[in-house]
Amino acid sequence: MNLLTTPDFSHGLLDLFDPPGLHDPSANGYSHVAVVRLPARVIHIAGQGGEDDQGSLSPSFEEQVSQALDNLQTALRSAHADLADVARLRILVVDHDEDRLGIIARQVRRRWANRAAPTCTLIPVPRLALDGMLFEIEAEAYSAWRR
Length: 147
Known about the structure:
This protein is an alpha+beta fold. The chain has two helices and six strands. The chain has helices at 61-78, 98-111, and strands at residues 14-17, 33-36, 41-48, 86-94, 119-125, 135-143. The longest helix has 18 residues, at 61-78. The N and C termini lie far apart (35 Å). Mean pLDDT is 90; it is low at 1-9.
């Protein structure tokens, strides 16, 4: 069992793990289970696309994934949280295939290096909100109360 409870992998509110009897999903950049200890601050991050701060959108899927993850980190920081606080991701992908899954998995493993990745549901979709938008990611995070 990949129960990550050491200080390097858990901040005391969130444990991410893969129970016996389920495959190891780490190659695809997610964990099967997230356990959150309450009370905690609950942070919902709206779907982040690959637009830069000027609203420009690259035609490259890989660049959109990278920018969307940068945007996710910016949104988390604004709520005094970071990637280690994320328990769940929802990813929407236009024209999903194994190549796109590989790009996403590499980016997630790079961003969540040396710790378990959050739980994740990837949903293939025919279209997203903007013309040319290929990737969107939303998150649920939990962090300690700050006074």
